[in-house]
Structures are given as structure tokens and as C-alpha cells.
Amino acid sequence: MSPMPTDTADAESAPVTLTLASSLRVRDISWVWHRFVARRMVTFLDGDPGDGKTQIAIDLAVRVAGGYLMPDGTGWYGLSRGAPVVYLDLERQVEIATLPRLYAAGYRSGQPVHIWPEDVALSMPNQVDKVIATVQAVGGALVIVDTLVRSADEGLKLGDYQDASRISGAWDRVARETGAAVLLINHRVKSPVGDAMSRGYGSKGGLAGVARSMLGVSIDHGDPDAEDRRYYLEVVKASYRKIPPKLAYRIVRTDVDGVDDAGVPVVVETSRVDWLPDAEVVTAGLAKRRDRRNANTWVVRDAIASGASSSGARVPDGARVPSGADALDAVELDDLGPMVADVGSRVWPGV
Questions:
Q1: Contact, 324 vs 252, CB < 8 A?
Q2: Distances 206 to 50, 201, 209, 228 between C-alpha atoms, Å
Q3: How far apart are CA 348 and CA 336, in angstroms?
């Protein structure tokens, strides 16, 4: 005699309620950084150690929290007012590495960058739910995980498609249920050859296989300045959008104020990313050089985002202009007022 079916068995075998495609609406992607980092999605930031991935992530955190423009001059939904950021420093180097870099990038006291206080193991019961609840509690627009491997359970291999899918899937759930952009920093295996898709974990498996959105950083081996190398940030995989031009940057050494173990004030050496609006950028096989007028536009846009106006224009100090203090040399302060009025009317009507 066959056993009587249980309610659980009936529920598991019940047909799924389908949705008619015509009852849905086409929805555009909402961006934190247009064509680079999307809301409700996971974006991998992949590159060799020392190529500035963490500095780029921190630069993005400061821009989001402070309401600044993005490195390529694009605006976003939180422009001028800012939005909360949740930063998971799973390397547990907050006070000696992350915090100095935040201040070097222009972070100001009170801006909503929230530091996650503990380790994350995605296989632990309710761990993903805990992350989701925390991000929702602060209204996080951007979640940064530094580094991805630290959130993976021991024994999982990022180069294996199934393991990578499990890890990516957990963070994808965080993105979907919170509406935040999730940026996962990953250290690529060093290799002198191959592009960002084929190096490290390969294009047919691992992270490159499961990722729908991936950014890659790489050094410019043709840059003659070996002491101050130029790097590139580019979109190397984009399932839902047109790939934007790559951006050039340098890693700049700088100092910030801090304290030693005894609480005595000291100067702490750190670094930040300095975006290069005048650098040669390669797009679709063609070399293009942004002219000085475009560089001026970038500086003015940052000034507008920081509160400048055509009457009594105000330029923040170098740390508050995320495009880099050196870029201010492109604009004479006396000329800023008229330029703000001109650029502002074209970039944001009503400014």
C-alpha cells in the first residue's frame, strides 16, 4: 500500500504560478556609476595585487557617500545629497589601511560610510539574512566587499564554476533584496600575458564565467614613467550594457593625520587613486586624447557637486575634489564662476 501524500509533498509537487511576459514592464538599469556599477547587481572588480583596486573602491565609496560626480564626470541619482555605503573590510585592516585611504580620497566626518565590524562566512546560518538586514537598516546604496575570497568558506575555489556560483549567488541575493550595488574586490593571479577575461580564473569557469558585470584593472606597460605608472580601469564583461571607454589613473602617495598606539598625533603615509582626465585613453582600437577644455569641465563639474555656484564660486581643497588636486591647475579660480554657470546649465538644468 502506497503511503499517504503529505502536505509538504503536495506543496513541493504543485505547479509553479507563471507570469505572462506581456504583464511585465521593461525596466531600465539604475546606476550608481553609469555603465560601470549598477544597482541591484553584483559587479566584480578584478586585478593584480597592487594595481589600485582597493583605492578605486574607496574612491567610489567617498563619491557615493559625499554625493560627488563619478570619475568620468557622470552624475547619478544621489548626486549632491550622497547615499550610505557599507564597507566590509574582511582583511580587518580598518584603522591602519582603510581609514587612511578614505581620508586621502576626501572622506569627511559624518559622511555615511559604515564599516562592517566582523568576519563574514556565507555558509553560516542566517549570515546572508544578517547582511541584508544590516544594509537595509542604513539604506545602503553601495556595498563593498574587500576581498571576495575572505567571504568564501574554506575549501571553496573561486576558479571552480560551481563554487564561484555559490559565492556570487549569495551576494547577488544581497543586491536584489536591498537594491544596493554590490562591488566584490578580487585579487587576480599575477600573469604577464592575457587579457582580464582569460587571466586568473579563466573565461570558461570561475568568476569570469558566472559574472554578469566585471571591471578589470591593469598596468600600462607602455608608460615610460616607471616611478609613477599609469593604470587603466575598464569594463571587461557587461551583459546588459554598452561598454564605456576605459579610464586612466595613477596611484598617488599621500599623507593623512593619525595617531600612534599611545595616542600621539603622527603623520600616516597612505595612497589614493588620481584619475587622469587628460590621459590617452584607448577605445575601440583608436587613441583619443581628451583636451584641456574637457579637463576643465571635469573640475567644474566636481566643483558644482561640492557646492560651487556662479555667484561666489567655491572650490574645495584637493582632498574634496575626487578627480585629484593636480587637476585644479587646469582652471584659474577667477574664471570658475562663469564656467560653473556655463557647464552647470548644460549638465544639470536649473543649476
A1: yes
A2: 22, 6, 5, 33
A3: 17
Residues 6+ apart with CB under 8 A from 164: 157, 158, 201, 205, 206, 207, 209, 210
Sign of the dihedral defined by the CA atoms of residues 99, 104, 109, 114, in that order: negative
pLDDT class of 52 with cuts at 50, 70, 90? very high
CA 120 to CA 122: how far, in whole Å?
6
pTM of the model: 0.73
Q: Helix or strand or coil: residue 98?
A: helix
State the average pLDDT over residues 313-338. Answer: 40
- Using CB atoms within 10 Å of the CB of residue 14, give its burial: 0 to 12 exposed, 13 to 18 middle, 19+ buried: exposed
Q: Quote the mean pLDDT of the chain.
A: 76
Provide CB contacts within 8 A for 196, sequence distance 6+: 46, 47, 188, 214, 216, 218, 234, 236
Beta bridge partners of 231: 219, 249
Q: What is the DSSP string of 308-348?
A: --SSS-----GGGSTT-GGGGGGS-GGGHHHHHHHHHHHHS
Cβ partners under 8 Å of residue 80, min gap 6 = 67, 305
The C-alpha cell that represents 332 in the structure block: 584659474
Residue 23's beta-bridge partner residues? none
Q: Please choose, from the candidates 147, 96, 136, the residue with its C-alpha nearest in 3D space to the C-alpha of residue 114.
A: 136
Extended strands (E) in the chain: 31-33, 37-38, 42-47, 85-89, 113-115, 142-146, 181-187, 213-219, 230-238, 247-259, 265-275, 280-283, 286-289
